[in-house]
């Protein structure tokens, strides 16, 4: 989404501090800072309509976001080492090879922003293959060959899960990214990947922007599995509100939730 699609909006911090648009975004970045490189943290950023839709009529999240969401989106990318996204979402949202947002390079410590695609099949959208830097590809045994053909074996993280060739072990995937120095992880979904990440208990933080729109029936929620609507799901995952920002002119809400991960061997109540 272009920054000039919507007029700039103030955000209001938990202490009622106004955070007007700032080219350097130092104050906003401080609210989302989790430490420098080497600090292991998995953050997910999603946008939702008031009625829970993860995208608008065009099947893209860009049709339900706004200027407040775009401000936080840019800061979160600037603070990350790697953006992790499902290959289907990258295809639908037409992801390019990533760079740090213009003007916010100082927030990233000088390193390039990496892109990692999660795919069972190893099939990648052509949009991520056009740049000078190749993406990382996280896949299982069945997708490793096609992925290596597309980006080279050195950029493939093969982490087969227990359920067969198409299964991906996300715990092992984030361990492998950390071994490569990519410890500050930002995932931008989509909904199926977020559901899988929650089931694997790898999410530390969930950032959700709620924009003041009602989309109606059709789009998935921000957490969505392959089963039918109404099917049984896993127990709820507890979350604690870290902060809530408000864009007064629009009513957009920007929430940061700390997700309580289970201790090894524990079950969530």
From TrEMBL:
InterPro entries registered for this protein in UniProt: DHFR-like_dom_sf, RibDG_C, Riboflavin_Biosynth_HTPR
A biological process term (GO) from this entry: riboflavin biosynthetic process
Keywords in alphabetical order: NADP, Oxidoreductase
Pfam families found in the cross-reference section: RibD_C
UniProt pathway: Cofactor biosynthesis; riboflavin biosynthesis
Region (Disordered), start-end ranges: 1-21
Coiled coil, from the record: none
The keyword NADP is assigned to this record: yes
The organism's place on the tree of life at top rank: Bacteria
GO molecular function, one term: 5-amino-6-(5-phosphoribosylamino)uracil reductase activity
Keyword check for Oxidoreductase: yes
UniProt-listed PANTHER family: 2,5-DIAMINO-6-RIBOSYLAMINO-4(3H)-PYRIMIDINONE 5'-PHOSPHATE REDUCTASE, DIHYDROFOLATE REDUCTASE FAMILY PROTEIN (AFU_ORTHOLOGUE AFUA_8G06820)
Protein name, as recorded: Bifunctional deaminase-reductase domain protein
Protein source organism: Isoptericola variabilis (strain 225)
């Amino acid at each position: 989404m272009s920054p000039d699609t919507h007029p700039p909006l103030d955000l209001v911090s938990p202490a009622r501090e106004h955070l007007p648009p700032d080219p350097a975004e130092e104050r906003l970045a401080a609210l989302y800072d989790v430490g420098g490189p080497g600090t292991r943290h998995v953050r997910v950023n999603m946008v939702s309509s008031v009625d829970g839709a993860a995208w608008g009529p065009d099947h893209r999240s860009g049709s339900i976001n706004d200027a407040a969401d775009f401000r936080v989106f840019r800061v979160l990318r600037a603070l990350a080492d790697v953006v992790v996204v499902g290959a289907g979402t990258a295809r639908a949202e037409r992801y390019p090879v990533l760079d740090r947002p213009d003007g916010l390079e100082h927030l990233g410590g000088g390193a390039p922003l990496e892109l990692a695609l999660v795919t069972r099949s190893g099939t990648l959208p052509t949009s991520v293959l056009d740049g000078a830097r190749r993406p990382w590809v996280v896949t299982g045994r069945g997708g490793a060959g096609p992925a290596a053909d597309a980006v080279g074996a050195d950029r493939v993280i093969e982490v087969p899960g227990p359920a067969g060739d198409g299964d991906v072990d996300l715990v092992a995937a984030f361990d492998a990214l950390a071994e490569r120095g990519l410890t500050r992880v930002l995932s931008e979904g989509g909904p199926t990947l977020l559901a899988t990440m929650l089931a694997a208990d790898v999410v530390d933080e969930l950032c959700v922007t709620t924009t003041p729109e009602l989309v109606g029936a059709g789009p998935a929620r921000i957490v969505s599995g392959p089963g039918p609507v109404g099917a049984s799901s896993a127990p709820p995952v507890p979350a604690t509100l870290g902060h809530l920002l408000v864009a007064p002119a629009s009513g957009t809400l920007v929430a940061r939730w700390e997700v309580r991960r289970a201790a090894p061997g524990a079950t969530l109540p």
